[in-house]
Design goal:
Blueprint: E1 2-4, H1 8-20, E2 22-27, E3 42-46, E4 49-53, E5 61-66, E6 69-75, E7 82-84, H2 86-91, E8 103-107, E9 110-124, E10 127-137, E11 145-147, H3 149-152, E12 157-161, E13 164-168
Parallel strand pairs: 2-8, 6-11, 7-10
Antiparallel strand pairs: 1-12, 3-4, 4-13, 5-6, 5-9, 7-11, 8-9, 9-10, 12-13
């Protein structure tokens, strides 16, 4: 069993990258469409505590709720911030045609443009975090969405064991 103690230092590093525009996420260039794969089975033992089952490929997928809207996401502890495709950002009302994507994000295919945003709230079952830093990537840069450390790092506990992931607020 791997237990991760999430220190404030991790969030501070992410915030520093956000402030300087030097966001260094190890984002996959074009991850699998999270909408195509079903979300992980989610169980709630008590409020503020969810347990996810890994999919057949070993990944954890969730149907997050962002500002009251469902967004399929891939859980990614290697991503500094929550990352949304342009299409996700557009459907959530976070971007429009005239927006600038002047933050740089490192992906497997190189650097891409992104727009920094703050999500009012992100919810996975009964686990809710307010004011979550995120980026919306430029059109065509990524399919789907990643649930990164700007959300995960604000939880009290993340615990991974075999094919289970526990999130606790």
């Amino acid at each position: 069993m791997i237990k991760m103690a999430l220190a404030a230092g991790l969030l501070t590093v992410g915030a520093a990258y956000m402030a300087t525009g030097l966001i260094e996420d190890a984002l996959p260039a074009r991850p699998e469409r999270t909408a195509a794969a079903p979300p992980s089975r989610l169980e709630e033992a008590r409020p503020g505590h969810v347990s996810l089952s890994a999919g057949p490929d070993g990944h954890f997928r969730v149907d997050a709720t962002i500002g009251g809207r469902r967004v399929p996401m891939l859980v990614d502890t290697g991503a500094t911030v929550v990352a949304l495709s342009y299409e996700n950002g557009e459907s959530l009302g976070l971007v429009s045609g005239g927006d600038r994507f002047d933050a740089r994000v490192a992906t497997a295919n190189g650097s891409v443009g992104a727009k920094r945003v703050v999500l009012r709230d992100v919810r996975i079952g009964s686990v809710k975090v307010d004011d979550v830093a995120a980026v919306v990537l430029s059109p065509g840069a990524m399919d789907g969405a990643l649930l990164g450390m700007s959300f995960l790092g604000r939880l009290r506990r993340i615990e991974s064991a075999r094919d289970r992931l526990v999130l606790e607020r």
